[in-house]
Amino acid sequence: MLPDLLDSLLRPSACRRFAGEPASRAAAYVAFLAILFVGALGVAVKLRLAPVLDETFVWLETSMPSLHIAGGQVTASPPGPLRLEHPRLKEIALMIDTTRKDPVTPQMMTDQKVVGYLTSNALYLQNQGAGRVEVLDLSKPGERPVALDAESYKEMQRAFDWVFYPSLLLMFFILFSISLAFFALVYALVGLLLSSAAGASLGFGALYRLALHAQTAAALLRCIDTLLPVPIPFLGLATPVVSLVYLWLAVRASAAPSSPPPAPAA
Question: Where are the domains of the chain?
């Protein structure tokens, strides 16, 4: 697939081959581009997101008091009130007070600058997007007691590493592949006009395959943008322009007559 990538970027004449390639190879090329993007995303997650998540679990292991939920009652050691603030994300702070039974108001959470408040019978979570506080009622007895301590958070981190990261990469692989396939459909429709203007007799299927390859440069820009600490300016406008330019070059190359074979030697 690497030769196809280089041809898509540097050799417009290769578009004749792309226009007639089987659907299985076109699908494999889409998967190849999606793998490149997921690889870049994996590096970005490892460098930027993973340290924050690891630090969060360490913070929970070392700062969160031991909690015990049984019989509709939450107990903590120490019982509180205790305000916990994330060491890096200062806007994430929790209040734990298992001596309190009275409801917690949104104003109280705003005054204490916390996004969560745990009492002896409920967990209050501030939904900043909706401008309200969600309440999780813990007063109803569960089937069995629940204990949360430092070892519990270590187990959560191990499960999180095994489930979250693979699921995240798989989700973006699927989404990126679908995105390439969908925009290829849009570009192929535009390609009908380009084909007419260039005097090419290309069917929709051939244009669709060309549109897949025409997105190579845009896909690589997405990979680079994922790796950079700051986003590329106007990337959302640049990628369709770049793809359409490559599609126009592909259509023109496909419309150009093939080089005549060399004349036989006298």
Answer: 2-49+160-255, 72-140
